[in-house]
Specification:
Elements (H helix, E strand, L loop, with lengths): L1 H14 L10 H6 L5 H10 L10 H26 L6 H25 L7 H24 L6 H5 L3 H12 L10 E2 L2 E2 L4 H8 L7 E3 L10 H9 L7 E5 L2 E4 L2 E3 L6 E5 L5 E5 L15 E3 L5 E3 L2 E4 L11 E3 L4 E4 L2 E3 L5 E3 L3 E5 L2 E4 L4 E3 L2 E5 L2 E4 L8 E6 L9 E5 L2 E4 L12 E4 L7 E5 L2 E2 L21 E5 L17 E3 L3 H5 L13 H14 L10 H12 L12 H14 L3 H11 L6 H7 L5
Parallel strand pairs: 3-4, 4-7, 5-8, 6-9, 7-10, 8-11, 9-12, 10-13, 11-14, 12-15, 13-16, 14-17, 15-18, 16-19, 17-20, 18-21, 19-22, 20-23, 21-24, 22-25, 23-26, 25-27, 27-28
Antiparallel strand pairs: 1-2
Helix pairs in contact: 4-5, 4-8, 5-6, 6-8, 12-13, 12-15
Bound molecules: 2-acetamido-2-deoxy-beta-D-glucopyranose (NAG) (6 copies).
Length: about 600
């Protein structure tokens, strides 16, 4: 024993003099530095020798993670056992979400601890953020179903606080990365996956078709089959056009699933669960995905519960490194639940009323169309409700190069409803709007309180170089946490560094890119041949008015018209607008006429 103490003293002193204060009780010395010292000390003291000697911050990080893991496992089995205590359906609904959420929390902690996972500080911060968000979601389920009085006290534990401690230790400044983009997608997106998105018809492992021409008639049957596959490589499910009335869940174990539709107008997955109907918000989603590496392209996710049924999610993603490309999200309150992890949305359409993009993921939206719909009387439209609960989480919503507009049902009654960019669902709510077009619906104040002064000092809301009638910041809220970003450094940490969209001939490419950006809203680009792409480039170098685009195939032309008109009745207008903002000072309407987008 004496030998041990001597060894300990020598070692400590030789490493760092200030550590000598740790002599009495090294764990509690470290615990004191945490946001939640009490539970840290409490549990450390019950197992003084379990975690060994703590000399460095990295030792303590490991110890704190192990402690959080141990307590989370304990809480999980206690929660399972509590199932028998549920007194009604509402308690049961909230409780069964919690089981899944605890399972995910343990998964996140485990992969953070796993010495064989290659993991950056940012990965770890993401997973720990998710571990914490899960537990907040578990709690929220009981509260929203008015079932918090009995079960929640029984479930009380200190796991949230212990995870919050691990977030504080892990966050040493290197956990806020500069966003990097390659070929228009995040740096973490694999080139092979990007090719899959850009191939006209990627090879499918399974085909779903309602008319029996595929392997399965329902999406659910295809997902069940995919669950039985061996390995976790990219697995492509092609869902042919049709309206699929199903609720789908792609769970933690199903990694690297890709769903490809025939276009958001044609492949639709729809459901109608809602909080009004007895679901939790969490479980109301028509499509749920948590397995990492998920990709969707050309599909609409819909919830038809309607505004009167309150929270009703069309899609919930807790899939780390998930990408949604040219997808539609249609609902009213709480349409798109960006629950947790890292997510990227490109060229998507998102419709809703209250808090219709919400959650606590690290999520970026680029080149999307965001539509406010007509809410219930006396409701206000809020586009985002970001839910960061801990200042050390690395989560937030970033909306870039998108358009904020009124949907067709809102337009005639625009003066009866106010629209805001967001409101603080949780204490450290974090949202930025960069270089978007904001139509007149956006209220001059810009942002809305959640509840009095709640979170106004601790949130972070920013706007950078937005345009359009709703973008003026002169009458915006004066909260401490709100700022107009003027420093391009501050913005660039959040903004995509625009790269050319590829190809070798630079002169042509950048013009093609411009055009590509301009036409994507009409979905025309996909219909053109590579030769026609090059032709566009050449023509854009000349006088814009001379542009004449011919689509030889009559049916293709009709389809281009249909797709544009049906996905979005103002599609042609959007195209015009995009010309203006992409600085192609062309007579857009002439162009639109020629290419058949405008009658
Ligand atoms: C939570 O931690 C406190 C110390 O901060 C301790 O007194 C309490 O017993 C712990 N609760 C549970 C359920 O372990
Ligand atoms: C943690 O991960 C390892 C390796 O994947 C696995 O063997 C172990 O069972 C996991 N532990 C828990 C508690 O999930
Ligand atoms: C919960 O209670 C509030 C207020 O009493 C009520 O407005 C709400 O509709 C209730 N929610 C559910 C799901 O019962
Ligand atoms: C903190 O930063 C240092 C240096 O950048 C790095 O070596 C270390 O792994 C980081 N993480 C933690 C948890 O200390
Ligand atoms: C375009 O829409 C019309 C009317 O809805 C329909 O009859 C026609 O088949 C569609 N054409 C194509 C190519 O989708
Ligand atoms: C775009 O340009 C056209 C033609 O010059 C013009 O009619 C239209 O109002 C412009 N739109 C915007 C949003 O500036």
């Amino acid at each position: 024993m004496a030998m041990n103490i001597l060894f300990f003293i020598l070692l400590t002193i030789s490493i760092s003099p200030y550590l000598s204060s740790a002599l009495l009780n090294d764990a509690s010395w470290w615990c004191e530095k945490m946001p939640n010292p009490e539970p840290c000390k409490h549990f450390m003291s019950t197992k003084p020798n379990k975690f060994g000697l703590i000399l460095h911050k990295s030792d303590f990080r490991k110890v704190a993670l192990e402690l959080a893991m141990e307590r989370a496992l304990n809480a999980e089995s206690h929660t399972k056992w509590l199932g028998q205590k549920c007194r009604n359906e509402r308690e049961k609904a909230a409780w069964s979400d919690c089981l899944k959420l605890y399972e995910s929390t343990i998964l996140q902690l485990n992969q953070t601890l796993d010495p064989t996972t290659k993991c950056t500080d940012f990965d770890a911060q993401t997973w720990l953020s998710t571990a914490l968000t899960n537990l907040e979601t578990c709690r929220a389920g009981f509260v929203e179903l008015n079932a918090s009085d009995y079960m929640l006290p029984l479930m009380s534990n200190n796991v949230t606080k212990l995870i919050s401690n691990t977030l504080a230790i892990n966050n040493n400044g290197s956990t806020t990365p500069v966003e990097s983009y390659k070929h228009g997608f995040p740096g973490w997106f694999r080139p092979g996956d990007r090719k899959l998105l850009q191939t006209a018809a990627p090879r499918a492992n399974i085909v779903v078709a309602q008319d029996g021409s595929g392997n399965y008639r329902t999406v659910k049957a295809a997902i069940d089959a995919a669950a039985k596959r061996s390995g976790s490589g990219r697995f492509v499910i092609y869902i042919k056009r049709g309206v699929y009335r199903e609720n789908i869940e792609i769970g933690n174990k199903m990694k690297n699933i890709m769903l490809v539709g025939d276009g958001m107008k044609y492949t639709i997955i729809t459901g109608s669960r809602s909080v009004g109907g007895g679901s939790t918000t969490f479980n109301s989603a028509t499509v749920i995905v948590t397995g990492s590496g998920f990709i969707a392209r050309g599909i609409t996710f819909r919830n038809t519960a309607g505004p009167q049924n309150h929270q009703a999610v069309a899609l919930r993603s807790g899939s780390d490194l998930s990408v949604f490309y040219r997808c539609g999200f249609e609902g009213y309150q709480d349409t798109l639940y960006v629950h947790s992890q890292r997510q990227f949305y490109k060229e998507c359409y998102i419709y809703g009323t209250v808090d219709f993009i919400f959650g606590n993921a690290a999520v970026v939206f680029q080149n999307c169309m965001i539509y406010g719909r007509r809410p219930m009387a006396s409701q206000k439209i809020t586009i985002t409700a970001q839910g960061r609960t801990d200042s050390n989480q690395n989560t937030g919503i970033s909306i870039q190069n998108s358009r904020i507009m009124a949907a067709s049902d809102l337009k005639p009654v625009l003066n009866s409803f106010k629209t805001f960019l967001g409101r603080p669902w949780k204490q450290y709510s974090r949202t930025v709007f960069l270089k978007n077009y904001m139509d007149g619906l956006v209220d001059p104040a810009g942002w809305l309180e959640w509840d009095g002064n709640f979170a106004l000092n601790t949130l972070y809301y920013g706007e950078y170089r937005n345009t359009g009638p709703g973008s003026s910041t002169s009458r915006r809220v004066k909260w401490r946490g709100y700022r107009v970003i003027t420093n391009s450094n501050e913005a660039s940490r959040k903004r995509a560094r625009r790269k050319r969209c590829g190809g070798r001939k630079k002169g042509h490419t950048s013009r093609i890119c411009k055009y590509q950006r301009a036409v994507y809203l009409g979905f025309l680009w996909d219909l053109l041949t590579p030769k026609q792409h090059v032709k566009f480039g050449r023509m854009l170098r000349r006088k814009p008015t001379k542009i004449e685009i011919k689509i030889e195939d009559k049916e293709e032309l009709e389809e281009a018209r249909n797709r544009t008109a049906a996905v979005n009745p103002t599609g042609a207008t959007a195209l015009l607008h995009h010309f203006n903002t992409s600085s192609a000072s062309a007579s857009a309407s002439t162009k639109a006429q020629r290419i058949g987008l405008q009658s």
